[in-house]
Amino acid sequence: MNLSAATNIKRWYPVYTHSRAEKKAYQALRLKGIETYLPLQRQMRQWSDRKKWVDEPLIKSYLFVCISPQEQMEVLMTKGISRFIYFSGKVSAMPDRQIEELRLLLDSSYELEVTAENLMPGEQVEIKAGPLKGMRGEIIAYGSKTKFLIRLGDLQQSIMVTVPLAMIERA
Fold first, then answer.
1. b/e map of 49-83 (b: 16 or more CB within 10 Å)?
2. Any idea what the CATH number is for the domain that residue 16 is in?
3. What is the pLDDT of residues 130-139, one digit of tens each?
4. Statement to judge: residues 83 and 165 lie in one domain
């Protein structure tokens, strides 16, 4: 493969947004024709006079773009975008598999919890049944609840899903 062909390959990149600007940045990127993914989770919000269901970003201040390296400057010039995530001095790309897993998690009925807490690695497990079948991660126990942890690599974020123990087996 020649160098120009390699630089035209589109990959998923996590992008850090300004505080509470995820939805506006998402819309601005879409208007530019850039493939963008903003994982949203429906939550009940309480105001002084009412309660309302709202779609909130699953991971605060992050969204994901599928671009070639030449498009990075166009993304950075978008209102609401702060910066790309770097790891070892390079813009950090994510495997397609992680974006697919995020979509699968959000389409499931499982309770999700995102944490930036640096949890100690636990036993590697795989979900053996249900809509998340085949997904691998770590098992984390909190009291009587069993949580399945998926690490999002260079983002230093993790997603915990409450999964019945009967659906988990050693990887």
1. eeeeeeeebbbeebbbbbbeeebeeebeebebbee
2. 3.30.70.940
3. 888 888 888 7
4. no
